[in-house]
Design a protein that fits this description.
The complex is a heterodimer of chains A (597) and B (248). Chain A is α+β, with helices and mostly antiparallel strands and 597 residues long. Chain A has 15 helices and 24 strands. Classes of the chains: A alpha+beta (597), B mainly alpha (248). Chains A and B meet through helix 2, strand 4, helix 6, helix 11 and helix 12 of A and helix 7, helix 8 and helix 9 of B. The complex binds flavin-adenine dinucleotide (FAD) and iron/sulfur cluster. Chain A: Belongs to the GMC oxidoreductase family.
Chain lengths: 597, 248
């Protein structure tokens, strides 16, 4: 790595954002022989500093005081549920927790590492084929990605090998293993590491779902079940189920992160330059507005504005910031929900998630503090292709899982009570302690479709610390997704019974329920700069190249046309490798649009 | 302290406040089985607040205790040092609202859109406690701290359900701030001033900073056998050195 002062005057490539997407692109493009400069708004982060024990496992400093998350004091966004409301600023982090600093949210993610399925990637086509075009509601912007599972398979495989993912294959080059997720598509290879062990709660769920005729499998986890060295020579140690994945940096080099799995290799490369505390304000365009010339950014160390030029710009600042930078840079046409034209901000989606809870008898202890972010047992019976949505009356689906990732006491205490039960006082205290010791959560973690009046644009009122308009989110839950969630959750009761639950609290989305920004859900935000086959309905072509500015590639879950049942990062990483592969193979030889509009 | 403070007594000045016991009678009556030693600097009862004034701190002690009371499960907020924790948190970037997006304009909206007041945690406590006491004096003729527990609970319930409002601070907003900080104080590392003696963690069955469960991934529902350990010694989290280590 060259430092800030000795870097080449003009890099070939500028990468905005140092998370998973940016790090993968930087690795691939330096391998292609290019000089790459990565700009990251936050500080540098490493296991040796942010990951040191015990500071890394301090719940107050970590999740309660948002140590690794986006600094809202500098920039946030505004949120409303409906277009007729005034959106108000997201003043306190709660519903989602974007990252800041090298590694991005990839430093404090959990590690559930899924591949997308063929159905996820061709959702409009498969829905129309199976249930007819009329099954798709008029206001739903259901779309295909424009890339098939078969095309992406080598890149899913590559990402798993880089991440050191633990899991159990079901079908490898057509050979059934008799294990794993029987609904998962065929793979070119096994997971690099064997599956994570089942916690007690996961083993109870595995037994009960087997008994009730479902098809449990070990969740693929980017937590190392064994020591591992990835193709970049980066090393991981075995995970000890310390329980501090989600919201924290792993102190054991066991959870995959850009910081552990990619950056150690990049930092050794002379062609790679990292500039931290560089807040990119804008992607600059030339007079034709069809070519990016570089970026304008604030150097937060000197508080001065600077520009950098390059031939190729990679925007990988996370979903929300990708959309924001496209809008403030004036690239593409902002989406208009009235005319349904324009693409930037269109098809913004999230993840439906509801946590239900079951209690076991008093002599069974669930030790909920034990866990790993990606470990657990899931069933895909309500997420797989042949599950009949026609009968159920919705599009989408949810895996159900017990993903005991390590529940800390502040979080446990804050989330106890409510729904009729007291949230404080002596009765609360007893119930909270009982809940901590003897219960566990079962999640329905589902898809979220795109709708005409759910979108992102720029806020007319509130600005960030750099004087720019902030992003405005218009988002709420819609009937199709509420029905989907309710249907899936309705099956948890029988599983709970089979687990010997003494008490069950089922939670599902309710008709008319608005999205609540005060409650953590997931940081699985999608869309707004989506990929596709038609420049009228997508901002990027199937190689994640901007239709409007061909030397700009926008990498991240911002490219997803809709939210799938699984967590996003496995697909984010595969799409990054897919895009990089085609940049290397095609674009660099002949820079220009890789698909004609 | 037998007779509740009258409104006149309250108006009469802070001197009269010092005579209200910090611990409720129930908490005081609890026998201390540990051998009596010389005064313990870490004893939460010895703590002198630096942010809260006497009236505010007294309120805090009693309100936290109702939210997280001493009972058969174990100590309550006061014995755990929760008020001390909250006082110390007020002098951190968090207390000053530096972790929040605080740019104007400020405008109220539906609850789902979240917190919309121009106030930091310091401002919230400073702005709400005196009006709460005034409310208690008007309705019950006594400060919150000296009300019987049932009446204290009733006031807290009226806050929680947003039936009360203290100037422009909705009761529910302040209640959530207080509940959040109380539970943080009960369960954060003792270095922060609460969770005294790791009693909060012991009550929950949380083993503290162990963070290694290689042998306990699945013991078929047996309880984890080891009690908590605290974080190994490290810089005082309130020292400038530690705060500088935080990202600004
Ligand atoms: C608590 C938590 C748990 C999660 N668990 C899972 C999980 O189990 N499985 C899963 O698949 N996903 C999970 N995720 C989501 C996952 O973290 C993201 O999908 C992933 O990190 C996205 O990678 P990215 O590179 O697109 O963005 P990021 O990792 O967020 O990186 C973007 C980077 O860009 C920087 N940046 C932003 N704007 C600018 C700017 N203007 N100038 C310069 N730099 C900028 C940011 O500071 C950041 O470092 C989780 C997320 C969170 C928060
Ligand atoms: S649970 Fe495992 S992967 Fe997660 S932080 Fe702990 S050691 Fe790391």
């Amino acid at each position: 790595m060259t430092d800030d002062t000795s870097r080449p005057a003009r890099p070939d490539v500028l990468i905005i954002g140092g998370g998973w997407a940016g790090s993968i692109m930087a690795k691939e493009l330096t391998e292609a022989g290019l000089n790459v400069t990565m700009l990251e708004r936050g500080h540098d982060h490493s296991t040796a500093v942010e990951g040191t024990y015990p500071a890394s496992i301090d719940e107050l400093r970590g999740v309660a005081r948002k140590r690794l998350f986006q600094k809202l004091s500098r920039t946030s966004l505004t949120i409303r549920n409906r277009p007729d409301q005034t959106a108000l600023p997201y003043r306190q982090l709660a519903a989602f927790l974007p990252g800041e600093g090298v590694g991005g949210a990839g430093l404090h993610w959990s590690g559930c590492h899924f591949r997308a399925t063929e159905d996820d990637l061709r959702l409009r086509s498969v829905t129309a084929e199976r249930y007819g075009e009329n099954f798709i509601p008029e206001d739903m912007h259901l779309q295909d990605y424009g890339v098939s599972y078969e095309e992406l398979e080598p890149f899913f495989d590559k990402a798993e090998k880089v991440f050191g993912t633990s899991g159990e294959a079901s079908s490898v080059r057509g050979q059934k293993t008799g294990k794993g997720n029987i609904f998962a598509p065929d793979r070119s290879d096994h997971f690099p590491l064997p599956p994570m062990a089942d916690t007690f709660s996961a083993s109870v769920f595995r037994a009960a779902t087997t008994d009730t005729g479902y098809h449990p499998f070990s969740m693929p986890a980017a937590n190392a079940s064994q020591p591992y060295t990835n193709p970049y020579g980066c090393q991981m140690g075995p995970c000890n189920f310390c329980g501090y994945c989600s919201g924290y940096a792993c102190y054991l080099y066991s959870k995959a992160s850009p910081n552990v799995n990619i950056l150690p290799a990049l930092r050794r490369d002379r062609r790679f330059t990292l500039i931290t505390e560089a807040q990119v304000l804008e992607i600059m365009l030339d007079d034709t507005r069809k070519k990016a010339t570089g970026v304008r950014y604030v150097d937060l160390k000197t508080r001065s504005e600077k520009t950098l030029e390059a031939d190729l710009v990679i925007l990988s600042a996370f979903q929300l910031h990708n959309v924001h930078l496209m809008l403030v840079s004036g690239i593409g046409t902002p989406y208009n929900p009235v005319t349904r034209t324009g693409t930037i901000g269109r098809n913004f989606t999230y993840q439906t998630i509801t946590s239900s809870r079951i209690w076991l008898p008093e002599d069974r202890f669930t030790n909920q503090f034990v866990g790993a972010g990606g470990a657990g047992v899931a069933i895909d019976d309500f997420n797989q292709p042949s599950f009949d949505r026609g009968k159920a009356g919705f599009i989408g689906g949810s895996p159900i899982w017990v993903n005991q990732s390590g529940l800390k006491p502040i979080a446990a205490a804050q989330s106890s009570g409510g729904k009729e039960a007291p949230r404080w006082g002596s009765t609360y205290k007893s119930a909270m302690i009982d809940q901590y010791r003897h219960s566990f959560a079962i999640d329905a973690h589902g898809s979220n479709m795109a709708y005409r009046d759910v979108y992102l644009d720029l806020d007319p009122t509130w600005t960030n610390a750099y004087g720019q308009p902030m992003l405005r989110m218009t988002f709420t839950w819609k009937d199709n997704d509420i029905r989907m969630n309710q249907h899936v959750v309705s099956h948890i009761g029988e599983i709970a019974q089979a687990m010997g639950a003494t008490r069950t609290s089922l939670n599902s989305l309710q008709p008319g329920q608005s999205f609540d920004s005060r409650v953590y859900q997931t940081t699985h935000l999608n869309g707004g700069v989506i990929m596709g086959e038609n420049p009228k309905t997508s901002a990027l072509n199937r190689y994640l190249q901007s239709w409007d500015v061909p030397n700009l590639f926008v990498i991240g879950s911002s490219a997803f046309p809709q939210g799938m049942g699984y967590n996003p990062t496995g697909l984010v990483a595969a799409l990054a490798y897919w895009s990089a592969h085609h940049i290397r193979r095609t674009y660099l030889r002949n820079p220009g649009p890789m698909v004609s509009a | 302290m037998s007779a509740p403070l009258s409104r006149r007594g309250f108006m009469g000045g802070a001197a009269s406040l010092s005579s209200i016991p910090l611990l409720s009678h129930a908490a005081q009556a609890e026998p201390d089985s540990r051998p009596q030693k010389t005064p313990d600097a870490s004893d939460p009862a010895q703590y002198r607040p630096t942010f809260f004034n006497q009236e505010e701190y007294l309120f805090l002690c009693h309100a936290c205790e109702r939210i997280f009371p001493q009972d058969e499960n174990g100590p309550g907020a006061q014995a755990l040092g929760v008020p001390r924790f909250i006082d110390r948190q007020m002098n951190t970037p968090y207390g000053f609202g530096d972790l929040w997006y605080m740019k104007p304009p400020f405008q109220e909206g539906p609850p789902e859109l979240g917190y919309q007041l121009p106030y930091s945690p310091r401002d919230l406590y400073r702005g709400a406690i005196t009006p709460i006491n005034t409310h208690c004096l008007m309705v019950h003729d006594a400060l919150f701290a000296v009300l019987p527990p049932e009446q204290q609970d009733a006031v807290l319930r009226d806050m929680e359900s947003n039936r009360l409002r203290f100037n422009d601070i909705p009761g529910a907003t302040f209640f959530e701030q207080l509940r959040t900080n109380t539970l943080e104080g009960a369960f954060s590392d003792p270095a922060y001033g609460g969770n005294h003696g790791m009693e909060g963690w012991k009550m929950m069955g949380f083993p503290g900073a162990r963070a290694d469960f290689m042998d306990w991934i699945n013991q078929d529902g047996a309880p984890y056998p080891f009690g908590p350990i605290g974080m190994p010694p490290r810089p005082d989290p309130y020292s400038p050195a530690f705060q500088n280590d935080e990202e600004s």
